[in-house]
Amino acid sequence: MSDFDGAAMSRFVSTFADRLHERREELTQLDSAVGDADHGINMDRGFSAARAKLAELGEADLGTMAKTVGMTLISTVGGASGPLYGTFFLRLSTSLGERDAASTGELGAALRAALDGVQQRGKAIADDKTMVDALLPAVEAFDAASGDGIGPALAAAAQAAAAGRERITPLVARKGRASYLGERAMGHPDPGATSTTILFESLRDAVAAD
Amino acid sequence: MSDFDGAAMSRFVSTFADRLHERREELTQLDSAVGDADHGINMDRGFSAARAKLAELGEADLGTMAKTVGMTLISTVGGASGPLYGTFFLRLSTSLGERDAASTGELGAALRAALDGVQQRGKAIADDKTMVDALLPAVEAFDAASGDGIGPALAAAAQAAAAGRERITPLVARKGRASYLGERAMGHPDPGATSTTILFESLRDAVAAD
Amino acid sequence: MKKLINSTDAVVDEALAGMVAAHGDLLRVIEPNVVVRADAPRQGKVGIISGGGSGHEPMHGGFVGMGMLDAACPGAVFTSPVPDQMLAATKAVDGGAGVLHIVKNYTGDVMNFELAAELAQAEGIEVTSVVIADDVAVKDSLYTAGRRGVGGTVLAEKIVGAAAEAGQDLAAVTALAQRVQDNVRSMGMALTSCTVPAAGKPTFELGEDEMEIGIGIHGEPGRERRKLAGADEITEALMGPILDDGGFGSGDDVLAFVNGMGGTPLIELYIVYNKVAAMCAERGIAIARNLVGSYITSLEMAGCSITLLKLDDEMTRLWDAPVHTPALRWGA
Amino acid sequence: MKKLINSTDAVVDEALAGMVAAHGDLLRVIEPNVVVRADAPRQGKVGIISGGGSGHEPMHGGFVGMGMLDAACPGAVFTSPVPDQMLAATKAVDGGAGVLHIVKNYTGDVMNFELAAELAQAEGIEVTSVVIADDVAVKDSLYTAGRRGVGGTVLAEKIVGAAAEAGQDLAAVTALAQRVQDNVRSMGMALTSCTVPAAGKPTFELGEDEMEIGIGIHGEPGRERRKLAGADEITEALMGPILDDGGFGSGDDVLAFVNGMGGTPLIELYIVYNKVAAMCAERGIAIARNLVGSYITSLEMAGCSITLLKLDDEMTRLWDAPVHTPALRWGA
Ligand SMILES: Nc1ncnc2c1ncn2[C@@H]1O[C@H](COP(=O)(O)OP(=O)(O)O)[C@@H](O)[C@H]1O
Ligand SMILES: Nc1ncnc2c1ncn2[C@@H]1O[C@H](COP(=O)(O)OP(=O)(O)O)[C@@H](O)[C@H]1O
Ligand SMILES: [Mg+2]
Ligand SMILES: [Mg+2]
Ligand SMILES: [Mg+2]
Ligand SMILES: [Mg+2]
Fold it and tell me: What is the pTM of this model?
């Protein structure tokens, strides 16, 4: 299995866009229960635009690709997920820079930078019941498994994201709209943690498909 | 069986008020189908007020009693039925005058005057599908049977009112709100013809109860 | 039935009390339930009054104030008021120059206003009446109850109110009201029924994919039930009869009024207005003035109505004149 | 889903087109979907902008015009706008005196406005932001997303808009906006859910005898589901937390704002206002100004919110100052 390159980045974004489109209703439904019923719509709109922009962009280094995705998300999504996922990709971009391919370690550092960006932007910490609770364990699992190579590291990350999402489902939310519900949010999965889980599954599968 | 006196008038209004109250929902339901869903409410409001006013009035001649009812209806009902039923009783009043009791013939003349008043006020003719289609045959049946005495004459009137109401149910309405519906009113009984039928049944039973 | 009410009997009285609490600078309520302009009667000014069943708010009480109505008579929900109210209103606003009754064409309204006018005239007050009958969903015929009075009423009250405020006499404001009536056409539709509080359940039932075209403002069913359509198609279905019947055409100046029925939010009314504007533009009809909002409603019914009024210079000037009422306010 | 729309994707664009068609004298729309006051930028005047998801009409686009907002940024339905919009708005209204962003406190709105402010500042425009967070249904806490911005936003936009119109500088209008925020409290409730067009079904389901207390304006469920109650009891349930949290009491002058959520007719709002007025009177609180109507809505949701603002003389004077926008107009 090779490094993470432009083709992998394209497949990743494209796979994620497909799955968001397929699961648009499910994500919106989760957001109905604890929020404003738009998360699936927002993510679908943003990533279908990002995929189209990437296609327009053609060949480019990883940083430029990630920046294109991040800027597109910020300009098309709105809501909480626009700046958060936008920041995620902009930080990936800064970290990956002009590289055409990233090693497992470099990808891990970029994901870590992305996590930091999301936390700075949204000020959520662990157990606030947000996408951070899928993202943070995913990044840590990736780091822990990165010695085994990119495939296993991404598999571990995806699994950790899903586990994080499950883990926080019983909690009360402290950030995002679900926080308005108080105890009524208990037992409802977080929409953003769900889409972040799909993100890591898409990343895993995009790389594995190589 | 005696003439129509103040006690009979009281029983008549009171019986009619009771039945309107009991059948308030049914009348309103009929008005939902072809109008604005208030006929039962209107009639119940008006006749419960009229009954109370009659009780306040105490002993009085027939004209004063009918006038009290008519004025109360005009002041409390509104809608189409307020002026129409109000006029009905005001014309009864003028015709009955200061009598304490009316013969069968006198009652027949008063009912005829009431019919004329309703037609002048509302400008409806036969087959416009309004209360006139119950009132007009009732008055004619009363006249035709008045030789048999007040009881049989009122029984004939009540039967004719009910038959009139049935007869026009299939028609298109030309007056009242049901006229807005065009052919959609066909097959729906007219609310006002229904309440007029109840009026004659109440009058029949009030006199028979003597 | 889901409503913000306390009891079905108290709806009208409590809403009137709320209006007085909110707009005591503009209006007061006198017995028996008449909303009267705070400074009425005004000597020498023609009094303009209207009235009808409640459930159409802000009409008519919300139009009482400077430059519009001098008094409004709210009946029970969807039930025309009683003559006592119109008589009290007429007396309360008479400043010696006579009183115009603006009456929506419903059998009950017409008869009750007629009785009141007779009583007021008997007391020596000069009264004229103009009946508004602008609803093209109903066939115009001498042999029936005729057309309903709907959206055109709002426009008539504003324009005639301005004329009376400007000092026009009874004959002039009466003729003007009739001119508005002759030049205005409306039609409405419903996505959902409303529920009369005292009835407790919806006046009609509509399937999730159905709508009523040609409804009035009393929850009465429309002329026709159709499959639900898009806003543009609905707008065409309403505008077609309005344009035809009113003979609106190239070179006309109109006032276009898109009205919500009570349960429809403003965002949807603007979508309808967008199509109204496009249809007028295609036909060379200039929308010189417009009004978009819920001004003549049918409780919580979802739906809309469209009204077009062919304007002349005087009507336009009077429309622009200052008005200060709870529901319409400008220039003041 | 029963709505007067053509397609779920076109809702916002067509409604904006309708607004421009209706109110071209007051506003225009520039790319990327920004509603801008017709005469912006005005040299030397502080620009006031706001924005948020669509579905709350007339807020914010309906408040663009003389004496209120210079621009509004409508996002997708219930989705905060993107920074490109606020940046374009900021540039379009900047008259050299800086621009104030009035932001409702939702994570998305705050982050997107923040990004825009950073970009605008990078382009040399002075930008300040005030976050409105007046919803007492949500606990005020540093460790959460904090309170939502609801009805207080309308009042802030009017008052601050008047100050900017009067020539106050950026520091002054910013401080004033903060003063409004510090003195305003709101709470809302729903009788029915709304339906996000793109979602196609109600955001939540409520039984025929249930209501949600403590809802926001995005169809999010409230703090608590209760058995349906009468208007007075509902008003008490909303007023209690507002009065407590805001410390409103005897001798205070307030602006009382009873707001409809989109599907509730005016007659019901007056019933609620009647109780609000009674409760204030009991407590010696003087309602110096009031507003009753649907100004910050949640699509076709039935329900209401109540807002109280403790007024000082300057706020009262600015509230009374002329305003000419599609949705609020007086003195002009
Ligand atoms: N402060 C925050 N930090 C991180 N994630 C957040 C924060 N606030 C909200 N989120 C995430 O955003 C998701 C909601 O996204 P979305 O529905 O698109 O935005 P909005 O709440 O503006 O409608 C939540 O499920 C949560 O995971
Ligand atoms: N012009 C008329 N002449 C006689 N009866 C009429 C006329 N118009 C309506 N009605 C009667 O009135 C009834 C409706 O009464 P009601 O529902 O109380 O009044 P509204 O139509 O004002 O709501 C109709 O069913 C009809 O019988
Ligand atoms: Mg959301
Ligand atoms: Mg009726
Ligand atoms: Mg009626
Ligand atoms: Mg959102």
Answer: 0.95
